[in-house]
Design brief:
The structure is a single chain. The protein has 5 helices and 5 strands; from the N terminus they run E-H-H-H-H-E-E-H-E-E. It has a 5-stranded mixed β-sheet with strand order 1-4-5-2-3, covered by helices on one side. The longest helix has 84 residues. It is α+β, with helices and mostly antiparallel strands.
Amino acid sequence: MAPAGPLPCPGAHLPSLPSLPRQGAVDRTVNADSAAQLRLLDLQAADTALAQLSHRRGTLPELASIAEADSRLGALTDDLVRAQTEVADLAREQRRMEGDVDQVRQRSDRDQQRMRAGTVPARELESLQHEVQTLARRQSDLEDAVLDLMERREGAEARAAALAAEVDRVRSERDAAAAARDAAFAEIDAEVAARIAERATITGELPADLLALYERVRATAGGVGAAMLRKRRCEGCHLELAGTELRAARTAPPDAVLRCENCRRILVRTPESGL
């Protein structure tokens, strides 16, 4: 069973919000203990993984292979229908001309039997001989035409057979790609389910105001609401804290929620922050 389209990243349903006002390095509207702030990094990791899984689900190479195969199958099927129609038309024309040959042959046979029987009046004999000769030429012309039709039909049948084989080959490749896609979808969906469960556990542990701030920032910052402060550098925008921003971060109490002056993401302090 082929799953539906890409799963939305949790929080993607949130409406776009205006940029949050700058309040310096410390967000004085929210406080949360250090453990809760560190848990934001786990939540961000889960959200990043969900976004990556959604992107992976929508960009599987098998999807392009299936689309290409579908396009190829459409063109091949049209060519095959035309080739099969040509074969049917030639076969019908061949049967018609073979019927004409039979009629000419039968008439010629009847005339020759009359001549051999000796029952033809002398005044009609020359005319009958002429008719037999004419019928022989007509039969020869028709047989040549039948041979030509047979050759054309054989060529058309060969083309139709080659196209049918190509349709089977491309359809087999498409089926293999579809099976690989479905297997990848199942793997991705299992990972998504695990990440969603992990996310639910984490959000249940966070203070409501801290979670709300994270979601608001994430909605306006490319899906990244919290970033680690590593070696005085914001891992969200990769700019280093300096001046008053760095001093404010150094003197902020442990439960103060820091914000990057540049990207406005929540800055989470760790032993690697270099403060």
